[in-house]
Amino acid sequence: MLRTIVTVFAFLLALPTAYAQDIQLGASLQLTGASANIARYYRDGYALAIDRVNAGGGVKVGGQSRKLALKILDNQSDVNLSVRQYGQLVTQDKINLLLGPYESGYVLATSSVAEKYEVPMLHGGGASDQIYSRGYKYIFGVLPVASRYFASTVEAMTKLNPAPKSAALLFADDAFDTAVANGTRKQLVAAGLEVKLDERYSSNATDFGSLLARIKSLAPDAVLVAGHEAEILNFIRQAKSNDVNPKLFAFTVGVQSDDFRKSLGADADYAYGMTSWLPVASSKDALFGDAAKFAEIYKARFGYEPDYHGAAAAAAVEGFAKAIESAGTDEPKAVRAAIAKLDFGTQYGRIRFSPVGQVDLPQVVIQLQKGKLVPVYGEAGFMAKPLYPTPPWKQR
């Protein structure tokens, strides 16, 4: 009996322990609350990529294969709670590699934790220029710069026939949408468009009646809106009920989302958006094969189609895996240095960070046409014929 106990004890000692084997990544996400619908892309994109890395043998560190593990805390769509949770992940849970939250305001606030403790945060959830204007060394993001989100849309507008001559610019008062507006304002003027309305509204606004009345009175050819998905859903519904009919509606978010299209049905048609990712076979990577296969695998597992948020989340995990292997350790400063030197292809696109820590990817203009998401304008010009001008609501 004693011999059996000793044998079992020796066997247990020989087993690799979880903390020795697994490389822990940590994140605070909006799993509940106002931002949960979009944050799920990050939860699911992180989980899918980690599972694929582990299924392929994990990451190679010092001649050994180690698996990735993920701890996610629910910040309940509360930015202050998110800051505290990132502090907990680093100081209490001893997690020194951080994946980011969703939304620029959250990344802006929580990245200060990463900087304070000198641990890298790699994220796909924030694009505001402000995130990268502070000289931080430990924040890296794979979303394109916010101030250029509408740049390709404005460029495409100048090539439409007849080209819009005027525009209205509406934007929420958070870090991301303000940054989008600051860039778009300059782009509209440079393109020779008259900006008839340039208006900020409160984040999470539900009533756009007064703004739509002004748009109807001023009659701009194009209306560009930088906001959150729930706001844009309300905006479109109220635009229809108020019979507001510009030649072109364009939005920063929503158009890319399967839920958005299902919520609006045919009323979503003709809307323009932009994306840094498309589910195309030409975007290759070692983990999923290509972007088309990534989208197929993602939908099969989670039951809904990914958009650029989910693809960006997966790319952030891929970046950590590459950096850890390159550094030969999971020590945070060494991994940070390796992240800064990354240059490789993923299903999301090329991951190569600028000196301030941001990936520069082109935005493709997309449009909803008869319920389908159609890429219409990219770096090489028009990719498909846009449906333009948008017919009045009563004629659809």
Summarize the topology.
Layout (H helix, E strand, L loop, with lengths): L1 H13 L3 H4 L1 E7 L6 H20 L3 E3 L2 E3 L1 E7 L4 H13 L6 E2 L4 H14 L3 E3 L15 E3 L9 H7 L8 E7 L2 H16 L3 E8 L7 H10 L3 E5 L2 H13 L6 E4 L6 H7 L7 E4 L8 E2 L3 E2 H12 L5 H20 L4 H9 L2 E3 L4 E3 L11 E6 L2 E7 L2 E2 L14
Parallel strand pairs: 1-4, 5-6, 6-7, 8-9, 8-10, 10-11
Antiparallel strand pairs: 2-3, 12-17, 13-14, 15-16, 17-18, 18-19
Task: Give a quick summary of the entry.
Helices cover 40% and strands 20% of the residues. With 396 residues, it is an alpha/beta fold.
What does this structure look like?
With 396 residues, the protein is an alpha/beta fold. The chain folds into two domains: 202 residues, Response regulator (Rossmann fold), CATH 3.40.50; 161 residues, Response regulator (Rossmann fold). Helix content is 40%, strand content 20%. The strands form seven sheets. It has a four-stranded parallel β-sheet with strand order 9-8-10-11, sandwiched between helices. A hairpin with a 3-residue loop joins strand 13 and strand 14. Helix 3 runs parallel beside helix 12, helix 4 runs parallel beside helix 5 and helix 12 crosses helix 13. It is globular and about 65 Å long. The N terminus is likely disordered.
